[in-house]
# Entry
Amino acid sequence: MKHLAIFASGSGTNAQNLIEYFNYKKERSNQTELGHKVELVICNKPQAYVVERAKKLDVPSVVLSKEELTTNTQKLFELLSQYNIDYIILAGYLLKIPAELIDKYPDRIINIHPALLPAYGGKGMYGHHIHEAVVAAKEKESGITIHLVDEKYDNGKILFQAKCEVTPTDTPDDVAAKIHELEQANFPRVVDEYIS
# Structure
């Protein structure tokens, strides 16, 4: 059984999906073997709704400052050690992961990106900014990429991609809805398969 931490910055729909999959699916399917479990949610925004979602799902959450997550990381490392974290899952997390964390968790930090990398990746390319750029460029498709995290934004080894059509009449909100469906359908399963 692996212990997972989710890093999130926003509403937390992907975090909730992961928690429900890992912490509750075994109970629903009456399986006796221990699966992996989300032990901790770490957030960098006190008002982010992901904190409320974690509380409702009985998962401890901790809000750390940008400094505590990027430069003065002693408290972060203490938390990861305290909860025996084996893997870190980024679910709508907007800060760059520091090199010392990547060194401590090589090939054990997984991110989801709402575009088909390498397109629409890099600094500033997140959330609605991506969907607006995809529509503005009149792309015929978009999708999701689940990948390992390295020292560069949106650069690590790709584990999985899924595509969706973008029609000429789609708005950024339409694209966002299609991407959200792909995330919900695939993210927990791909993480599970990779860490298993």
